[in-house]
Each structure stands twice: as C-alpha cells, then as structure tokens.
Amino acid sequence: MPRVLGRFALLAALALPVPAAAQTGEALIRKLGANTPIPNPTFPASKELTYKVAWDVTEGPEKPEDLVPGFGRPANFLVMTDAEGIDRKKVQLAIIVHGTATRSLLTNAAYREQTGQDNASIALLEALHGAGVQIIVCGQALVNRKVPREQLLPFVTVATSATMARATLAAQGYATFQ
Predict the structure, then answer these.
(1) Can you tell me the mean pLDDT for 113-138?
(2) Is residue 9 domain-resident?
(3) 149 in a domain, yes or no?
(4) Main-chain phi, psi angles of 142, to 5 degrees
(5) Which backbone phi and psi does 174 adopt, to 5 degrees?
(6) Is residue 48 in a domain?
(7) Does residue 1 belong to any structural domain of this protein?
(8) pTM value?
(9) Segment 50-72, tens digit of pLDDT
(10) Residue 22 pLDDT grade (very low, low, confident, very high; cuts 50, 70, 90)
(11) 170 vs 18, 53, 121, 175, CA distance in Å?
(12) Which domain, by its residues, includes 171?
C-alpha cells in the first residue's frame, strides 16, 4: 500500500504546474530577455566588435514579491546579441545597483526577514552571473540603506560608490545606460 501511495504522490506532483520562478539559467534569460525578432536589419550589429555595456539599476520592485525590472535589461541584450550571431565571448556586461534596488541583492533569508517575501530577483541574478554578467553594488547605498554586506548574494561585488563603478567601467571601455 505505501508503494501505491508513493507512486500516486509522485504522479500528482508531476502533474502540478511548475512556477515560472523554477526556470533557471539560460532558459530564464531567454524568457525574461525575449524580444521581437527583426528580420534582415539594415543596421546589424558587427560580429567583429566586443560589446561592453553596463546598466545602472536604481529602482527596486514595485512590490517586495516582484522582480526588479532593470535586471531584465542585460538578459534582453544577451538574447539580442545571440540573435545577431555575436559570440558570447565578445559580450561583456555589468549591472551597477544602487537606490531602492539595493535590497534586491540580499540572500533570500535576509530579504524575507526584511520584507516577509521571497526575493524574486535571485533566479535571474544567478542566471546573469552564470552568463558572465558582473553584478556590482554601490557601497554608499549599502550604508545609506542599512543593507548588511555579509547578507548579499555571494557573487555580488561591492564598489566604493556607483560613480566609481561607472568611472572604472568607462575606463575599461564600457558604455553605461540607465
């Protein structure tokens, strides 16, 4: 009898819908970075260039249980460069996080303690990190918003300030967008 119940439980679990947050890695990047394909562009991206792009992400989620919208920009860029046939080795991306988005870099336990909700941004941040995207947080924002450094996701790097991060990336040839 226990075997029958165990099999039934397994079948029932497999029949349940999988939440979107369960997607990870490249599948999540492709889902959240999706865009409308443009056939035969007359101003195509060069496959010979190296693309170095950074985004300032300053706005947190509308509700604590939501994903930070700005974290989707690098996912979108990765999807577009893939569509253009650009080798990922020629794509170097970074996110500079400050403002109300800072708290979204907390581990799930720390985020849940502060907001009562799970951190919906973690799966995308992990996927972006896995794709080579640098995730940099403004040290001033950590102090001003009282975000404990030791509670950040392990792959987040801390800059003295967002301005210093932008200046450093600019000196390395990155273009920075809002």
Answers:
(1) 97
(2) no
(3) yes
(4) -60, -45
(5) -80, 145
(6) yes
(7) no
(8) 0.85
(9) 999 999 999 999 999 999 999 99
(10) low
(11) 41, 9, 26, 6
(12) 20-37+44-177
pLDDT above 80 for 20? no
Split into its structural domains, the chain has a count of 1
User: Are 63 and 104 a contacting pair, CB within 8 Å?
Assistant: no
| Per-residue pLDDT, 178 | 85
* CA angle 134–35–29, rounded 5-degree value: 35
Q: Is 113 exposed, middle or buried (0-12, 13-18, 19+ CB in 10 A)?
A: exposed
Spatial distance between the Cα atoms of 79 and 33, rounded to a whole number of angstroms: 6
pLDDT-wise least confident of 28-42, 105-119, 123-137: 28-42
Q: How many residues does the chain have?
A: 178
Greatest Cα-to-Cα distance within the chain, rounded to the nearest angstrom: 68
Averaged confidence pLDDT in the chain = 89
What CATH number does residue 124 fall under?
Answer: 3.40.1260.10
CB neighbour list of residue 145: distance below 8 Å, 6 or more residues apart: 100, 102, 103
